[in-house]
Each structure stands twice: as structure tokens, then as C-alpha cells.
């Protein structure tokens, strides 16, 4: 009889080194601060030519934000193949994904960002579609 461990599967994007522009990270940070104590939520868009550089945040109409959740209206998501994942804030100081976050990651996109208080360039983390931390460089 074989025993199976319940390790997280590594996705192809786990080893990929993603980059994010300083301006885009600043927008995420300021947006999270502006809606605090609620969560901020958006989609991540990459540069059309350099597909590993996150350059923009797309806001979905009808997104609902609360103090412990953000609900994306995915039926309002534009048809845009340069959207690679999601971003949202946590009103706490933890940027670790919840079970609901992990479900979202598995369904939508290859890379995701969670930013936490104090919403600085040191209080965020990138994750792949399986919830594994990924390296992201600010450029």
C-alpha cells in the first residue's frame, strides 16, 4: 500500500521570477490605504511585450469590499489575456493567504499579491496559483 503526502503541488510559475513596477506597487499600496479598514481588490496586468512585468491594476466594476472580504464580480472581468492574476489587501498585518484566498488563486490566474498593513513595499507577498510564495522584484 502506498502512502501519499498532501504536499502543495508546484506550479510552473513557482520558479518564475516575476517583476512589478514601483509605480504599480505604489498604486496598490495607496489604494489599500484609502479603503482601510476594508479590503482592496483588483486584477494584475502585465506588459504586453515583457510578459513577466506587472505594470497595471485593473479594477472590476461592482467589486464589494468589507472588513474581512473582497468579492470580485468575475462576470465583469474584461476579456484581456494580459491579466495574469489578482491583488488584494488584508486589513491586518498578515499577508498570508486564507483558505478563501487559496481557492481564488487556484481559479483565477498565475500570480497573486496580498498586501497587508502598513501597506508598504515591505508588507506584501506574491503567490503562485497554488498559494506558494513566489519571488517578485520591484523595478
Q: Can you give a write-up of this model?
A:
The structure is a single chain. The chain has a single domain, classed as Cytidine Deaminase, domain 2 (3-Layer(aba) Sandwich), CATH 3.40.140. The chain starts with 17 loop residues before the first strand and ends with a strand. It has 139 residues and is an alpha/beta fold. Helix content is 17%, strand content 31%. The longest helix is centred in the first third of the chain and has 14 residues, at 22-35. The protein has helices at residues 22-35, 99-107, and strands at 18-20, 41-46, 53-58, 64-65, 70-71, 83-90, 111-116, 124-128, 133-134, 136-138.
Annotation keywords:
10 strands; disordered N terminus; two-stranded antiparallel sheet; alpha/beta; 8-stranded mixed beta sheet
Amino acid at each position: 500500500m502506498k502512502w501519499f503526502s498532501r504536499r502543495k503541488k508546484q506550479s510552473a510559475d513557482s520558479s518564475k521570477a516575476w517583476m512589478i513596477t514601483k509605480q504599480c506597487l505604489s498604486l496598490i499600496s495607496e489604494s489599500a490605504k484609502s479603503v482601510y479598514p476594508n479590503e482592496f481588490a483588483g486584477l494584475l496586468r502585465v506588459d504586453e511585450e515583457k510578459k513577466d512585468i506587472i505594470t497595471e491594476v485593473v479594477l472590476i466594476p461592482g467589486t464589494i469590499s468589507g472588513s474581512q472580504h473582497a468579492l470580485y464580480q468575475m462576470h465583469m472581468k474584461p476579456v484581456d489575456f494580459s491579466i495574469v492574476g489578482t491583488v488584494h489587501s488584508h486589513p491586518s498585518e498578515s499577508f498570508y493567504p486564507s483558505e478563501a484566498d487559496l481557492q481564488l488563486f487556484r481559479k483565477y490566474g498565475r500570480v497573486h499579491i496580498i498586501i497587508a498593513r502598513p501597506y508598504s513595499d515591505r508588507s506584501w507577498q506574491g503567490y503562485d496559483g497554488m498559494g506558494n510564495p513566489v519571488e517578485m522584484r520591484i523595478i
